[in-house]
Write a structure and sequence with these properties.
The chain is of the alpha/beta class. Helix content is about 40%, strand content about 15%.
Length: about 600
């Protein structure tokens, strides 16, 4: 804009007014075109809605128009609130009580301008007060208090002044620099995300499974309606006699463990001389909509274990279960014990897995009747849950980082997010069988029945995890918000066999996917018997870097024997012939 040097203020010129009129016209045109396209698809609005929060009324939760209206009203209220605050802000910032690291306010403009410095400090103080009142409210049971805490934290994060254009100095600066083009680009980004039903978290088109993700060489050697079995090609002359079979969570794609080569647990295992197999679950469609716990135990884990045993002629395997697949692995071990076949699994490794859900964390907030009612509506027609709903749920658990960060970057600043392989995987959603998903939430999360002896049956056989004597390696993430360490620890209370607990730095993903070469984070071990997680922490020894070498050492202690990497140890050279190259078709199906 032109500078009026006499008055010291910026006076819009005729050209400026014409430009901003053009910007507004283009924005209106984009909205109208988007609306028209939606009508052409017989959708008054794109058929997407976020999951229920697990508290409050569910009425209107599946009505996109009601949601959009409610969202717009909430946004308007937030903008109105900060607008009023702007009107009352003085040019003298309040004294900073304590400097804190918060990347929402990392830009220097938040401190260089006294108005925005005051807004920032005011918001942080009010946030602390709101969050602090949660523990002061009387008459709440623990579950209700946690719901209130989650709701308050979500509200506080949503109301951050960084989320609104008029109270974010970076956005204001960018808007003046680009003369509004950032807002147009942001609007286009937002409309694209609404149409896709998913928030964009990484630059599109950069990553592709099989090209620069999941590239460790191997073959698909078995395919069932539920999974594909991948055997990886050895890179060492000898391999461990007892093979490793990894069961990733069926709610995600397996390649979180085989990202780029430098981050790949799969490649690291192969290079370390492990005979490695991976289960790649099928994204649910109508053909497996009626899958149950029995299917994932018997037709999934037991079937894959038997296939590998028979292929290599070994009595047992080392089984690895990540997240929900670890929960199912516990059920599998209990079932094999009940059938007198426990020797089929030489050892078990549990990565951020839970078997006792008494302290399962914030995900329990999404198991209320509102969520179950919405789940029934969403899956009534096809029998499976669109994976985007689960992705949205996990994003809500870390809304500040996984939602509002991208609202500011993508919609207000009008930028593309940088390429990030982990977030590409995070957005690569997997559909879930509705009945099994509901049963998992109700029977395990709410009912906590896996922790009760004989309360769950697999193919009519009562199972009891208290009887599991399989040597177990149990890894938890110190900052895990999905499977909190205190919840993962409970495996130590239930299993009867020898156990090793390792507490890794970081969370549910980065705490697991932490290659030694990165020299990041740390892990803690305690060689003394510990009755509680706190006693483990009090006496733990910290080790810098990745826990992977510790696991490999433990694995070799279970069975350090090696054999030549030949014959059936090479993909396709045994009884099971190759179907296709890894990573296979199931991981790419949508």
């Amino acid at each position: 804009m032109a500078d009026d040097t006499k008055s010291g203020s910026a006076i819009p010129t005729l050209e400026d007014w014409q430009h901003w009129t053009l910007v507004m016209g283009r924005a209106q045109q984009m909205l109208m075109e988007f609306w028209a396209e939606s009508l052409n698809k017989d959708q008054p609005f794109p058929a997407w809605s976020p999951p229920a929060f697990g508290f409050g009324e569910a009425q209107g939760a599946s009505d996109p128009m009601a949601l959009m209206s409610a969202g717009a009203q909430a946004w308007a209220k937030g903008l109105e609130t900060w607008g009023k605050m702007l009107g009352g802000v003085t040019a003298t910032p309040a004294p900073e009580e304590k400097e804190r690291k918060d990347r929402r306010f990392a830009a220097p403009e938040w401190r260089e301008n006294p108005i925005f410095e005051t807004i920032r400090q005011t918001y942080l103080r009010v946030s602390d007060q709101l969050l602090g009142t949660v523990d002061e409210v009387d008459g709440l049971d623990p579950d209700a208090r946690e719901k209130l805490r989650f709701a308050t934290r979500s509200f506080v994060d949503a109301m951050s002044p960084s989320n609104f254009a008029l109270t974010n100095p970076q956005v204001l600066k960018r808007t003046l620099e680009t003369r509004g083009e950032n807002l147009l680009k942001g609007l286009a980004n937002m409309l694209n995300d609404i149409a896709a039903g998913q928030l964009t978290q990484t630059k599109p088109g950069v990553f592709e499974v099989g090209r620069n993700l999941a590239t460790t060489p191997g073959k698909v050697i078995k395919q069932t309606p539920l999974y594909q079995l991948i055997q990886y090609t050895p890179t060492t002359d000898e391999v461990l006699t007892t093979p490793v079979v990894i069961f990733p969570p069926w709610i995600n794609r397996f390649y979180i463990l085989d990202l780029s080569p430098e981050k790949s647990l799969v490649k690291w295992c192969v290079d370390a001389g492990i005979s490695l197999f991976m289960v790649s679950w099928k994204s649910a469609d109508e053909s497996i909509a009626d899958a149950t716990l029995d299917d994932y135990v018997l037709k999934g884990q037991v079937d894959a274990i038997d296939a590998v045993r028979e292929l290599l002629g070994v009595p047992g395997v080392h089984a690895v279960g990540y997240c929900v697949a670890g929960t199912t692995l516990a059920a599998t071990l209990a079932y094999l014990d009940a059938k007198g076949e426990a020797e089929k699994v030489r050892s078990a490794t549990f990565l951020t897995a839970q078997v006792d859900f008494a302290e399962a964390g914030d995900l329990k907030l999404f198991t209320g009747p509102e969520t179950m009612g919405l789940l029934d509506k969403l899956t009534a027609e096809k029998g499976y849950l669109d994976g985007r709903y689960m992705a949205a749920t996990f994003n809500l658990l870390r809304g500040r980082d996984l939602i509002w960060n991208y609202v500011v970057n993508n919609y207000l600043l009008g930028e593309e997010p940088p390429p990030f392989d982990l977030l590409h995987w995070n957005s690569d959603t997997t559909n879930l069988p509705a009945g099994w998903h509901r049963d998992y939430l109700e029977t395990l999360y709410k009912g906590n029945r896996l922790a009760e002896s004989g309360a769950i049956k697999v193919a009519g056989t009562p199972i009891d995890i208290e009887r599991v004597k399989t040597p177990s390696y149990i890894q938890a993430g110190r900052e895990d918000h999905i499977a909190p360490p205190q919840s993962v620890w409970k495996i130590m209370d239930h299993f009867a066999g020898p156990k090793r607990f390792v507490l890794a730095g970081s969370g549910h993903i980065a705490g697991v996917v932490n290659p030694p070469a990165a020299q990041k984070y740390q892990y803690w071990v305690n060689e003394q018997p510990c009755g509680t997680l706190q006693s483990f922490i009090d006496g733990a020894t910290e080790h810098k870097g990745s826990w992977w070498p510790d696991w490999l050492e433990w694995l070799k202690k279970q069975d350090g024997e090696t054999v030549e990497a030949a014959g059936a140890r090479m993909p396709g050279k045994g009884k099971l012939k190759p179907i296709e190259d890894a990573p296979g078709a199931y991981v790419k199906s949508r």
